[in-house]
Amino acid sequence: xxxLCKLTNGLVIWDDDGDTIxxxxxxxxxxxxxxDALSDVMYAVDVGDYYFASINDKFTILNSNGxxxxxxxxxxxxxxxxxxxxxAREGKWTFVNGKGHxxxxxxxxxxxxxxxxxxxxxxxxxxxxxxxEGQEIYEIPSVYLSAKIIPNTNYAVxxxxxxAGVGIVNLLTGEEVIEPRYIDFLSFAPTKNHFxxxxxxxxxxxxxxxxxxxxxxxIGHVGKFNNGYAPFSVIxxxxxxxLNASEGEYGYIDEYGTIVxxxxxxxxxxxxxxxxxxVRFPTGQSLKKNIxxxxxxxxxxxxxxx
Length: 306
What we know:
By secondary structure, the protein is mainly beta. The protein is about 5% helix and about 50% strand. The protein has a domain of about 120 residues. The strands form eight sheets. The protein has a four-stranded antiparallel beta sheet with strand order 1-2-3-4, with no helix packed on it. A hairpin with a 5-residue loop joins strand 1 and strand 2.
């Protein structure tokens, strides 16, 4: 790419093998002679800055230097999500990665976005999950309207038409573990294989066979489990009914559904790999603690009070 001139308004004009590219003072492309239209600059992790460009009503994807990611033109393109962009030609879809490689042939009738390393795709009336290499992994029975894999498991959260609500399906067997009638999926405890779902009362916990273990009233959200614990929050309208909840709204729960640290915090982080948490009190004070040590200290305090 050869520099042609710099303008007083900060724009820089380049020659790229006979094509003129105009960049602003931040190096972002604002115009090009090769294409009919150019999008604003976009950014995606693992991709960097990129652009959509059109020529003769077809679309291509450009990298930060204005180079096409591949030699193909598409009828439709979507933004990069988690490293992949959906593209279509003649009504059929696939994904391209940040290097412009199509991970499958253009064979799908519809596709979603990648999330937790998987994406759903539809072909011939069937919905399947594919991985980042484009391999078809799981097929979702046609009775389900949508499906989302729970990370690092063989389970998916599904919704069933025409009934509202979500449930759980075992992707290896196709068995419906939890009937799709709950408001939302909250979390999964990997050591015990417990599912946490929400209903109008709060949180309900199931085992891997779909057997209801307990209802944990007034809990509205459960975060990701790590080292056996997860943060939770109380339902706002129910805060006053939980011990100490008037002082805060976040606490911690274990994989058995037991509240181990009461909701006295205004913020509670997920548990890191070393078992540490960061919490913030209503006073504004923030502290980093080891959750196991904090639970033990609380237990000893209660024992001495007895």
